[in-house]
Write a structure and sequence with these properties.
- The structure is a single chain.
- By secondary structure, the protein is α/β, with parallel strands linked by helices.
- Helix content is 33%, strand content 19%.
- Strands 9-14-13-12-10-11 form a 6-stranded mixed β-sheet. Strands 1-2-3-5-8 form a 5-stranded parallel β-sheet. Strands 19-27-26-21-22 form a 5-stranded mixed β-sheet.
- The longest helix has 19 residues.
- The relative contact order is 0.10.
- Bound molecules: beta-D-glucopyranose.
- Beta-D-glucopyranose (BGC) binds next to loops.
């Protein structure tokens, strides 16, 4: 550290200012006389998009392995696998001379309409944080950096450069920030990328609260903050807020603005020094990793196939899968010949090779006869001829496999979806084929949920294959033929209808503002609260075997929040095939001062079991598993009381539960203030103790005294009415019955309650 200080001390103001703005689209400015090299960053997140010309933003990139995108990765629920994939990504980065991979992205799937959801993990912050942390650890374990993005509340593409996200503090803390927090505190990404949008009126690049107070001070982030490409508006304001590196460059005007601001005293040079130190630290760290060599493309392709298979979610299966060697297979759908394996935009990888799903199927199909029909056109048009052709092929086969890919004009970075539908032709095709062939499997390639009401009943099985990466074609065949027993589970709810979704009335906003009116209630938190039926719940995924849960036990019946709790449960493979189960632990708070989701995911584990085998799964729960963020205290709090630990195979399939009592160790300051109502006073134990005697006295003798029936002179339930009066107003109504002025008494009671709290 002192080396870094010494090095920065030698730099001129001009050099320091230059280091805080990129030298090209992908590099920082080197300081040659101090042997400080440039730092080279490249997109990710699920492969390396390294352009040969560092001045080109969108050139076709050098070949690299395209792994499955984050929707698929999240559905693996396999943190070890993501670590391994991270290592492979790092190896490719090293070969391609890349210091930092721009990813992963941990924005929440607030609405399934967000065009970029394929690049994000989950609707649940705990799940997203854990998956991202492991991927980052894998990448960084090899000496390559990451950029955790897009910080924060960037949950749509519509007007993403400017939209003002209005989100309340509690939703920010409990839903939109925790995945970042987990990734930062557990994996220390080398860099964090700010988002384009405004958050509560201030651009992501100028957010002192988010960049400095929370990220750097509260979470202890040690790396540097980089802007999303073009997200900086006022360079000096951004630096002051904690935005260390502006990208892309070169931008001499920005450099000049910083120099000028230091010279005229508008910017304290220590602020610039701090940003420079952060950038230098990461640059020196990256320089320790020798670059070059070759990566093992064949091995990475095999890994990509493993990851893709692990993420595939068997949504429905009437027993047709795994295939029992059908002799005649109708393979239908353009995506069988031309794999749809990634999304459009900055994450678009130039793959080293691509599995053709049809050919991969053929390799496993033995002597079976495979006939093919394209099924649907590339564009949005209707083509009855193609449907007829598919029907003709399907009706003479034993089985029809329908490869359906959501086209990129419906889903990409840069624009949101307007519906959750497949194309009209695709729906008509599925309906027509399932009408003649009951043994139809629908295989989906998409990055986010689609609705299925019009055709689901007709399909014998549905396999969610996601944007599955370059080896996904083989992975589909593996799952269809049972070479891989599917174990993926959804990290996002599949709704019946768009209008059932949490943000439906507040997406994508208007007049430049999007209001997160649903607050904490996104994903299953919303469907639980509203008791809205869903198509497939969060955490859902079928297997070719079955699992039984038994013997749930908790490490204590009663525990202190700081000690945490250990949850143990036995899981048995009760079927005939080896398989893996994702065990999910949700926490339900029986009673809280503030509204809480019915349950929240706070732990999970993936366990592999041979037929008949039982393993004990242990999942620890810490303070945060029980806490909620209380804006009144501006901190995470726990409350004494009962919690129910729900252990399930999905959010809607709870297999075991147990109740436990938590003792909070927190000593909270009083939040009673000038305007606190009588209800607030009574909800606060200290407040109640102080107010109760005087209140009872006034209720028997004051102007609101009641008759025996609890009614006053004007025939209302006086107590309920009074509960919403601020204490001061209440006392003013009682002036006649008081011996001192109402304001004096109010002040005295406030002083008493504050003193009492402090002495607790
Ligand atoms: C995207 C980022 C990406 C950057 C560089 C931006 O438009 O939002 O995710 O890393 O471009 O390509």
């Amino acid at each position: 550290m002192s080396d870094i200080h010494a090095l920065v001390a030698k730099m001129s103001l001009e050099e320091k200012a230059a280091l805080c703005t990129g030298a090209s689209a992908w590099t920082t400015t080197p300081v040659k006389w101090l042997n400080l090299p440039e730092l080279l960053v490249s997109d990710g997140p699920h492969g390396i998009r390294r352009v040969a010309d560092i001045h080109a933003l969108t050139q076709k990139s050098l070949p690299a392995t395209c792994f499955p995108t984050a929707s698929s990765l999240a559905a693996t629920w396999d943190v070890d696998l993501l670590f391994e994939m991270g290592q492979a990504l790092a190896e490719e980065a090293i070969t391609l001379d890349v210091d930092v991979i721009l990813g992963p992205g941990v924005n929440m799937k607030r609405s399934p309409l967000c065009g970029r959801n394929f690049e994000y993990f989950s609707e649940d912050p705990y799940q997203a944080g854990k998956m991202a942390a492991s991927l980052i650890q894998g990448i960084q374990s090899k000496g390559v950096g990451t950029s955790l993005k897009h910080y924060a509340a960037n949950n749509q593409e519509f007007e993403r450069f400017s939209i003002n996200t209005q989100v309340d503090e509690r939703a920010l803390r409990e839903i939109y920030l925790p995945a970042f927090e987990t990734a930062v505190t557990q994996a220390q990404p080398w860099t964090v990328m700010c988002s384009y949008n405004k958050i509560n009126g201030t651009f992501g690049s100028e957010q002192t609260y988010l960049l400095t107070d929370i990220l750097k001070k509260e979470w202890g982030f040690e790396g540097f903050v980089v802007s999303d490409w073009g997200a900086v508006h006022d360079r000096v304001a951004a630096l002051k807020a904690g935005l260390d590196l502006e990208m892309p460059g070169p931008k001499q005007t920005r450099v000049n603005a910083v120099i000028e601001a230091v010279r005229n005293g508008e910017l304290d040079e220590t602020v610039l020094d701090e940003a420079v130190r952060r950038i230098v630290r990461v640059t020196l760290c990256a320089a320790q990793t020798p670059k070059g060599g070759n990566f093992d493309a064949a091995a990475h392709h095999i890994l990509a196939r493993r990851v893709a298979a692990e993420g595939m979610v068997l949504l429905k299966n009437n027993g047709l899968l795994p295939l029992q060697n059908p002799q005649h297979i109708a393979v239908i759908g353009r995506a069988a010949q031309r794999a749809h394996f990634q999304g459009g935009g900055s994450s678009h990888i130039n793959p080293t090779q691509v599995d053709v799903p049809f050919s991969e199927l053929q390799k496993l199909a033995g002597n079976a006869e495979l006939s093919f029909a394209t099924g649907y056109p590339e564009d949005n048009s209707l083509d009855q001829g193609m449907i007829n052709e598919a029907v003709a092929v399907a009706q003479v086969a034993d089985v029809a496999l329908l490869y359906i890919a959501l086209p990129s004009f419906k889903e990409s970075e840069g624009y949101d979806r307007t519906d959750l539908d497949l194309t009209e032709q695709q729906v008509a095709l599925i309906q027509a084929v399932t009408a003649v062939q009951p043994n139809t499997v629908v295989i989906l390639n998409n990055g986010a949920p689609v609705v299925m009401g019009e055709w689901l009943d007709g399909a014998a099985a549905v396999l969610e294959a996601w944007m599955m990466g370059q080896a996904g074609g083989g992975a589909i065949a593996d799952v269809l033929y049972g070479r891989v027993n599917p174990s993926g589970k959804l990290a996002e709810t599949y709704p019946h209808r768009l209008k059932d979704t949490p943000a439906y009335l507040n997406f994508p906003g208007e007049n430049g503002v999007v209001r997160y009116g649903e607050g904490l209630f996104i994903g299953y938190r919303f469907y639980d609260a509203k008791e809205t039926p869903v198509l497939f719940p969060f955490g859902h995924g079928l297997s070719y075997t079955t699992f039984a849960y038994s013997n749930l036990r908790l490490s204590a019946d009663s525990f202190q929040d700081v000690d945490g709790l250990m949850v143990s449960v036995d899981v048995t493979n009760t079927g005939a095939a080896a398989g893996k189960e994702v065990v999910q632990v949700y926490v339900h708070d029986k009673e809280a001062r503030l509204i809480r989701p019915y349950k929240e995911l706070k732990g999970f584990a993936k366990v592999a079991l041979q037929p008949g085998e039982t393993k004990t799964v242990q999942i620890p729960l810490d303070f945060r598993a029980f806490a909620y963020y209380d804006p009144a205290y501006r901190q995470w709090i726990t409350e004494d009381g009962q919690f129910v630990i729900l252990v399930g195979a999905s959010a809607a399939d709870i297999r075991a539960q147990a109740t436990v009592t938590l003792q909070s160790t927190l000593q909270l300051p009083s939040i009673l203030h000038e305007e606190s109502t009588i209800r607030h006073w009574f909800n606060d134990p200290a407040g109640k103790a102080i107010l109760q005697p005087m209140f009872s006295e006034l209720m028997s003798n004051g102007p609101f005294s009641q008759d025996e029936s609890g009614q006053d002179a004007i025939g209302m339930d006086t107590l309920s009415f009074l509960m919403d009066l601020p204490l001061r107003s209440f006392l003013h109504f009682q002036e006649g019955s008081l011996t001192q002025p109402a304001d004096d008494i109010a002040d005295m009671l406030l002083e008493q309650v504050r003193g009492l709290k402090q002495s607790v």
